[in-house]
Amino acid sequence: MEKVPMTLEGYEALQTELKMLKGTERPAIIQAIAEAREHGDLSENAEYHAARERQSFVEGRIAELEDKTSRAEIIDPTKLSGDQVMFGATVVIADCETDEEKKYQIVGESESDIAAGKLAVTSPMARALIGKSVGDAIEVHSPGGTKDYEIVSVEFK
């Protein structure tokens, strides 16, 4: 079974969502299905079909979250150190053409959010950064084309 790397923060977010789905959403859907059944003929009951569709989505998400949390390999970036980029590192990079700096933390796939500066470890940018050090130049190949960056700083927090 392949481990899923994630930060403690990402793991806790998945656990919170799982608890909400099991404790709030699931009972609400069961209630909605019961109420829709009381309306009679299920073949033409839109409320029943909508509730069953929502139930299918929620049960699928619960299964996905249970799988990820059971295979989670929690990595605490505060316990890491060094000058090489690895999972959990917060990296500042500078665009070689514009000198514009961007700051990213390399995190697990399920917790990535580019707007919040959280970069999935499987993304082209993260793959280019892994193993590099401050001062190294990287070339990132993405669907939008190739860009060159320089690593300005690497920290673990």
From TrEMBL:
Transmembrane portions of the chain = none
Has UniProt tagged this entry with the keyword S-adenosyl-L-methionine? no
The segment(s) forming the Transcription elongation factor GreA/GreB N-terminal domain are: 4-74
Q: Which GO terms describe its biological process?
A: DNA-templated transcription elongation; regulation of DNA-templated transcription elongation
- GO molecular function annotations of the record: DNA binding; RNA polymerase binding; translation elongation factor activity
- The domain of life for this entry's organism is Bacteria
PROSITE patterns attached to this UniProt entry: GREAB_1
Segments forming domain Transcription elongation factor GreA/GreB C-terminal: 82-155
Q: Which UniProt keywords apply?
A: DNA-binding, Elongation factor, Protein biosynthesis, Transcription, Transcription regulation
Its function? Necessary for efficient RNA polymerase transcription elongation past template-encoded arresting sites. The arresting sites in DNA have the property of trapping a certain fraction of elongating RNA polymerases that pass through, resulting in locked ternary complexes. Cleavage of the nascent transcript by cleavage factors such as GreA or GreB allows the resumption of elongation from the new 3'terminus. GreA releases sequences of 2 to 3 nucleotides.
Similarity annotation: Belongs to the GreA/GreB family.
Task: Supply the name of the protein.
Answer: Transcription elongation factor GreA
Q: Which gene encodes it?
A: greA
